[in-house]
Amino acid sequence: MPVFLLTALTMLAFAANSVLTRAGLVGGGMDAASFGVIRLVSGAVALAVLCLVTRGHLRLGGTGRVTGVLALLVYMYGFTGAYNSLDSGLGALILFGMVQITMFAWAVRAKEGVSLRRWIGAALAMAGLAWLLWPVGEAQVSLLHGGLMAIAGIAWGVYSLSGRGAADALQSTAANFVWAAPVGALALIVPATQGELTVDVRGVVLAIVAGAVTSGMGYALWYTVLPRLMASSAAVAQLTVPVIAMAGGMALLGEALTLRFTLASVLVLGGVAIAVLPRVRRRQS
After folding, report:
1. Cα(26)–Cα(85) distance, rounded to whole angstroms?
2. What share of the chain has pLDDT > 70, as a percent?
3. Rounded mean pLDDT of the chain?
4. What residue stretch is flagged as signal peptide (predicted)?
5. What is the DSSP string of 38-81?
6. Which residue from 58, 79, 82, 217 has the least number of CB within 10 angstroms?
7. Mean of the pLDDT values across residues 216-228?
């Protein structure tokens, strides 16, 4: 299959995570803890089976495992909890923006060479996110849920950075999911004792699809196609995720498109594009 089609399928899977989670919580009658646990366990099972089929074994050890597992748990439950309130596209935009800002902050901390263009891009992205979350008028974004998604974005950025040195990205991801699943199940204890767990057949199906297909298989597909993409191409591809999620939310969940969200999206995605895309050099005559 051509790289373009593989990349498009991967971006659809990433965006579908937002739409499926929002649909499971709002339309599927699920609580965030139950949805998150089912998604996590489904992803662990799918990735473990994929490793056994393609590698012949599942390796659960490796360096950076604790960091990867903790970051995955924070991402998973921040992401799920945020979608109790946020629309699909809005959540994906905050998540994506914070992932890129986290990567930028890591580069600064590691004293990598950070150009003025990258500083300008990061500032624009931060300004767009701040404007989006600033309480104005009646259509305010919940600071609690926006904050949860921002934390999820930071966690996913840390997760990505911690796994950059993995010899086998698929094995590393599968191990993180397998270790995180039983730990994540502890999140059910408090709501279970308070009778706050709500499980619905439709919500369970959506959580399984979000875990096994759009998360497990989606991540596996991304690791397959990533070595075949230039870094700039991978960055451009990820710019489409919030847009696809927004379109899915509007088409399937009846979510509205506001002028404020549109303009903030231009700031965030434009800033990220300025920061991550390579400068085009003129050919010398």
Report:
1. 9
2. 89
3. 84
4. 1-15
5. HHHHHHHHHHHHHHHHHTSS-----TTHHHHHHHHHHHHHHHHH
6. 58
7. 78
CA distance 87 to 78: 15
CA 278 centroid distance within chain: 23
Alpha-helical (H) ranges within the chain are 3-26, 32-54, 65-82, 88-109, 116-133, 143-162, 169-184, 189-193, 201-208, 218-225, 231-253, 259-276
CA 124 to chain CA centroid, Å, is 21
Q: Which residues lie closer than 8 Å to 265 by C-beta, 6 or more apart?
A: 89, 93, 128, 242, 243, 246
Model pLDDT, residue 139: 57
- Per the structure block, which two tokens stand in for 218? 């989606």
Return d(Cα 176, Cα 160) in angstroms, integer. Answer: 12
Please name the residue that has the structure tokens 């911690």: 162
Could you give the CA distance from residue 74 to residue 58 in angstroms, rounded to a whole number? 24
Task: Report which of 104, 92, 121, 107 is spatially closest to residue 20, judged by C-alpha positions.
Answer: 92
- Please give the DSSP secondary-structure letter assigned to residue 176: H
**CA distances (Å), 23 to each of 18, 71, 86, in order?**
9, 24, 11
Alpha-carbon gap, residue 10 to 207, rounded angstroms: 18
Q: What does the block give as tokens for 253?
A: 């969940």
Q: Which two tokens stand for residue 97?
A: 């923006």
CB atoms < 10 A from the CB of 261, how many? 20
Q: Name the nearest CA neighbour of 17 among 229, 219, 234.
A: 219
Question: Between 201-208 and 3-26, two packed helices, what is the crossing angle to 10 degrees?
Answer: 150
Distance CA 132, CA 267 (A): 10
Are 94 and 86 spatial neighbours (Cβ–Cβ below 8 Å)?
yes
The residue that leads in pLDDT, 47 or 220, is: 47
